[in-house]
Fold:
Amino acid sequence: MKLLIQDVAQEWSLCENKVDKVIFADGRYAPCQGCFACWTKHPAVCRMKDSLYEISRIIGQADELVLVTENTYGGYSQKMKNVLDRSISVTTPLSTYRKRQMHHTLRYGRKQKMTAVVFAEKENLEAVLP
Structure:
């Protein structure tokens, strides 16, 4: 499944036929509270029952992830960051060492291809969409 997470309002129609699922980061959800219940008590399910309560499962099951966001102070927009913060349980609280570095293990056991499109001007968006 190819998943698109975007905060670009209606411009997602430019690539709707190229993806299987679209999540619009519209800000109509609570930010992550940092309780880690999605890691320990209820794996991959957030305790806040809003539109993002199963975002980790959706992202974890995707084969390819495409992020389209506006450049805000050199990074993702606040709305996109909130979605990514809520998806922390794609990993587990358990750690492993790889090349002398500690990493969290993946809950779904695979890495997906990820593309991030960060733009400054909406006029140039159509030229860079995958």
In short: The radius of gyration is 15 Å. The chain has a mean pLDDT of 84.
